[in-house]
Design goal:
The protein is α/β, with parallel strands linked by helices. Helix content is about 35%, strand content about 15%. The strands form three sheets. Strands 2-3-1-4-5-6 form a six-stranded mixed beta sheet, sandwiched between helices. The protein has a four-stranded parallel beta sheet with strand order 8-7-9-10, with helices on both faces. Bound molecules: guanosine-5'-triphosphate (GTP), iron/sulfur cluster and magnesium ion.
Length: about 425
């Protein structure tokens, strides 16, 4: 159950003033003592996460946060900041207050989430001690704000809270997103090319590969999985050509000449870019690498916090590939330090990335779509082009047009941006 990638879980945040009962509610919801509860205001200092399976919806991630009282002096700035970061990651928010204390602070949270189109549920807790004013209930009904009257202590209203999640969950979580299945018809064959190199985890495959394989099977299609050196043989052995070839982006250059032009070819990272964010934007963003204007500062963001390995994609392969392309654009050999690559990992990401000429993100398979969209939005607001690993490598290898062939809109966005390029 807990093997579901974090990125595909509905993220539900518990927000509200200190002592409102957020941690108690999370524990009651999860039916486990996950988060520490105490009468001392400010008990939860750091976000606490709990993954669970919610009946009839599927995998969710519950996130408890530090109280966000309106009096900033009461709550440390760092705590506030952490809770605010969780707000950006949430697909749904529980706004918790004591039953008779719902006020302007909670209303402000409602408007903030509404602005980000994040569904909220008002949770009026401690109903064993305090009564919810009738006028408040009427007000919620009139404004169509879902609310639940609960008591974490008495276990009241917890079932209604679960129902409220299912009733208000964003559409995309009710129908699981497709990684590749929508490109296929039942019974077709897909060739998946997955190199087993030093970066491949021991004894297993990486998430995008596993997810693609699962989606092909869910689509009642046939998946043939090979390493890059077996592509030729696999194509020869198949009686009918595959409907699609999906390759690891690092093997794209090796695989592309082996696959006839008539067979659509793309990469796992391009499928992930489409699932997680905005493929057209990533395609247009990659064109920045080949533009005449100088490229001096590049931000490389990775969702995982793994230790870099030899030949690491973000630290070695991408900087090398970009220097090479820039060398061609500028018609000279670039010195090592002419382009500064800054690396960030995990949930670190600048609030305002305006100092960079380009942001390059990993496939973000462990992030949910909303977190990725928030990052894209930050780059867009700072007018900084944004792209991802797979799209970058395909661009640098000169094969992005081919990799985008199954996605006409993204191809068009890339061609439009590329007009100003100096590259052939
Ligand atoms: N009577 C009653 N007390 C509750 C209820 N829910 C929580 N409490 C009590 O309220 C106090 C605060 O509960 P917490 O769950 O720690 O509240 P919190 O919102 O997580 O507080 P922070 O640590 O400030 O984030 C504790 O003493 C709980 O036992 C409830 O439904 N009824
Ligand atoms: S670094 Fe990014 S693409 Fe790679 S496994 Fe982690 S989340 Fe997925
Ligand atoms: Mg707490």
């Amino acid at each position: 159950m807990l093997k579901t990638p974090k990125g595909l879980r509905l993220h539900i945040g518990f927000f509200g003033k200190r002592n409102a009962g957020k941690s108690s509610l999370l524990n009651a919801f999860a039916m486990q003592e996950v988060s520490i509860v105490s009468p001392v205001a400010g008990t939860t200092a750091d976000p606490v996460e709990k993954a669970m399976e919610l009946h009839s919806l599927g995998p969710v991630l519950l996130i408890d946060t530090a109280g966000l009282d309106d009096d900033a002096a009461l709550v440390g700035d760092l705590r506030r900041e952490k809770s605010l970061k969780i707000m950006e990651r949430c697909d749904m928010a529980f706004i918790v207050s004591e039953a008779d204390k719902w006020g302007s602070f909670e209303e402000k949270l409602v408007s903030e989430f509404a602005a980000g189109k994040v569904p909220v549920v008002a949770v009026l807790n401690k109903c064993d001690r305090f009564a919810v004013p009738e006028s408040l209930k009427e007000d919620f009904l009139r404004r169509k704000i879902p609310f639940v009257v609960a008591s974490a202590a008495a276990g009241e209203g917890i079932a209604s809270l679960r129902e409220a999640v299912i009733r208000n969950a964003p559409e995309e979580y009710l129908s699981s997103p497709r990684l590749v299945g929508d490109l296929l018809e039942e019974g077709q064959t897909v060739l998946l090319v997955t190199p087993i190199d030093i970066e491949a985890p021991r004894g297993r495959m990486i998430l995008p590969q596993v997810q693609a394989l699962r989606d092909v099977l869910d689509s009642s299609c046939c998946a043939v999985t090979v390493k890059a050196d077996m592509v030729k043989k696999a194509l020869r052995n198949l009686k009918e050509p595959p409907a699609l070839v999906v390759t690891d982006s690092q093997a794209f250059g090796e695989v592309a000449p082996l696959v006839p032009e008539s067979i659509p070819l793309t990469s796992f990272s391009i499928l992930m870019a489409r699932l997680k964010g905005d493929l057209s934007l990533c395609a247009a963003g990659a064109a920045r690498i080949g533009k005449k204007e100088k490229l001096t500062k590049v931000l490389i963001a990775e969702a995982c916090t793994h230790h870099p390995v030899e030949g690491d994609i973000g630290r070695v392969k991408i900087p090398c590939a970009i220097r090479k392309v820039r060398g061609k654009v500028e018609g000279r050999l670039l010195a090592e330090d002419e382009i500064a690559f800054t690396h960030v990992q995990g949930h670190d990401y600048p609030e305002d990335p305006k100092e960079y000429d380009l942001v390059i993100h990993c496939g973000a398979c462990t992030f949910n779509a909303r977190e990725m969209r928030t990052r894209i939005l930050k780059a867009a607001e700072a007018k900084v082009p944004f792209t991802n690993y797979g799209v970058t490598l395909a661009f640098c290898a000169g094969i992005l047009e081919r990799a985008l062939s199954p996605f006409p809109e993204a191809l068009e966005a890339f061609r439009k941006e590329r007009k100003e390029n100096t590259l052939p």
